[in-house]
Each structure stands twice: as C-alpha cells, then as structure tokens.
Amino acid sequence: MDTQKDLSATDRCDRDIFSISELFHENTKLRRTPDGLVLGGKAPPSTPEVHYALRHPWKRYASTARTRLPRPLDPLRTPIELVIRSRQSVREFSGTAISFEQLSYVLDLSYGTLGETLLDDGVAKRQRRVVPSAGALYPIELYPIVFQADGLQGGVYHYQPEENSLECLQLGDLHSTVNEMFSYPEVVAQASAVLLLVAIFQRNRFKYGERGYRFILLDAGHIAQNMYLVATALGLGAVAIGGFLDDKLNEFLGLDGVDEAVVYSVAIGCPLV
Ligand SMILES: Cc1cc2nc3c(=O)[nH]c(=O)nc-3n(C[C@H](O)[C@H](O)[C@H](O)COP(=O)(O)O)c2cc1C
Predict the structure, then answer these.
(1) Least C-beta-crowded within 10 Å: which of 22, 77, 119, 226?
(2) Half-sphere exposure (CA, 13 Å, Cβ side) for 110?
C-alpha cells in the first residue's frame, strides 16, 4: 500500500470537509453549462432595484453635525511612479497631528466622487468614484476615527461621499479605548487616525448573491491601496491592519456585525523619523 499517497488523501479529505474558505470559494464559482448559461451568480440585468442601488450607494447620518471637506484641493505633484515605488507600511508614528487638509486628501482621493455619469437607460445618473467597485454598487462605507488632526476635533466620523463631508458620530479622545480593539495596539497608539472600512453586505448581495462577498473584500483592497498611495504622496505613513477585534469595533460603531461590519482598517499618521 502506498502510505504516502494514503496520508495525503486523508489530509486532503479533512481539508475538503473542514475548510470554510474552500467550500465558500467552490460554491461561489461561475460555471458555464452546455446550454451556454452561466451558473453560480445571481446578477440580474438592469432592474429598478439595481438602478436604485446605483443611485444611492451611501449611508447618511441625517441628524449629525457635518463638516465639509475642502474642495477643490490643490493637485498633488509627486509623480505616480515615485509614489508607487515609495509605498511601504509604516508602523511607527510620531504621535503628532496630521492636518484636516491631509485627511481630506486621503478620504477624497481614496473613496470620493468624480461627477455624474448616465446609467444605461440614458436618463438616470450615478456618481463616478475614484475606485472601481463590482457593479458600481460601492458596498463599503468609511468611518475615520480621528485622534489628532489640526482643524478637526478628535472623534468618530462617517465619510459621506455624496457631499464630501464628515458626519460626526462621537467626539473625544478615543485613543486608549480604540487601541485595545486591535491586535497591535502599539501601532494604533501613535497614529493620527485609523480609517475603518465597513461593508454593508446586502448592497451587492442582492445582485451577486454569495459571490458578492468576494467583491466586497476586493473593493476594500482598492480603497486601502489608494489610502496608502495618497498618504505616501503627502509624506504621511500608512499601514493596513487586518488584525482587529471585529465585534468590539462593530459595537463601537453601533453596527450589528452581521448586516454591516468592519472588514479592514488603515492607520495613518506622521512617520517617526
Ligand atoms: C490584508 C492585509 C492585512 C494586513 N494586516 C496587518 C496587520 O494587522 N498589522 C500590521 O502591522 N500590518 C498588516 N498588514 C501590512 C503587511 O504586513 C505589509 O503590507 C507587508 O508586510 C508588506 O510590507 P509593505 O507594505 O511595507 O510593503 C496587512 C496587509 C494586508 C494587505
């Protein structure tokens, strides 16, 4: 008997049974049938539901104080190749404040709007955005937690891209509370802000079904890369942080962690030189 082969077969069998990620990936594949149909995704064509979603891809906290971000901002002049080649994760920050303007650049150029474009009916419009998103559904919302920023009080905010503003959810020095919600509190401790990327799952699930979960994580990656690059162009440091206590952060933001949940985060600040 070929023991080696037998063991690896057992190992493979265990993985097939117990790997949630394998099951998820397998069950969210698109497949073409002999009839030419593509199975596995829900994706209906243009429907009133899809049109509505395309025109309303953002959350709004109606009754909160809002601060408009400055626009237009002066163009950033650093050549893109230099910015891309200089990007790196910065985990040591000086603890000094970034400016409100720097935060505005990061938010606007990571997830802001670019102006209207027509939908396929030639009548309705949606906003173009600085990042791609599956089906232009933009299921991610940004929640900046600001620790030190000149010109903006510390607190928890929601970025509202439609009017390019910050909606204030809570004011105060939240550093010690928030640090403990990360696996690496020492990284967040000296950062000037941590930007939380929150998914509203139904925003693309209604169209793509379970495959939409893949797209949400990909969308988050696009946004986070923009954050890295804009921070680099501004001389700031940034680090993506996947190590956080999910439900602590969800609870902190008032999210249920099921329909809406934090999926990613990026800390930014002044690099320690
Ligand atoms: C999905 C993802 C999660 C990450 N999570 C963390 C984290 O929790 N803590 C951390 O210090 N760095 C984190 N990073 C940063 C990586 O460690 C870093 O990108 C990698 O070491 C490469 O280094 P560089 O970004 O400087 O090129 C994460 C990066 C990604 C893409």
Answers:
(1) 77
(2) 35
Cα 241 to averaged position of ligand 1 atoms, centre (Å): 6
Contact 149, 157 (CB under 8 A): no
Name the pairing type of β-strands 98-99 and 149-150.
parallel
Distance of CA 112 from the midpoint of ligand 1 (Å) = 24
User: How many Å separate Cα 165 from the centre of its chain?
Assistant: 17
Backbone angles phi, psi at 139, to 5 degrees: -80, -5
Q: What percent of the chain has pLDDT over 90?
A: 78
Measure 238 CA to ligand 1 centroid, in angstroms: 10
Tokens at 132, concatenated? 């791609």
Domain definitions of the chain by residue range: 41-269
Let me know if domain 41-269 sits in CATH 3.90.25.10: no
For a substitution probing ligand 1, which of 187, 229, 239, 266 has the most ligand atoms within 8 Å of its CB? Answer: 239
20-50 tens-digit pLDDT: 999 999 999 998 888 776 766 565 667 788 8
- Predicted model pTM: 0.92
Strand-pair category, 260-269 with 125-129: unpaired
Q: In whole angstroms, what is the distance from residue 153 CA to residue 232 CA?
A: 24
| Ligand 1 atom nearest to CA at 88 | 26
Distance 30 CA to ligand 1 centre (A): 30
pLDDT, tens digit, 9 for 90 and up, residues 169-191: 999 999 999 999 999 899 999 99
Calculate how far, in angstroms, residue 160's C-alpha sits from the geometric centre of ligand 1: 27
Paired tokens of 232: 């680099």
For residues 220 and 141, what is the distance between their CA atoms, to the nearest angstrom?
10
SS3 state at 109: helix
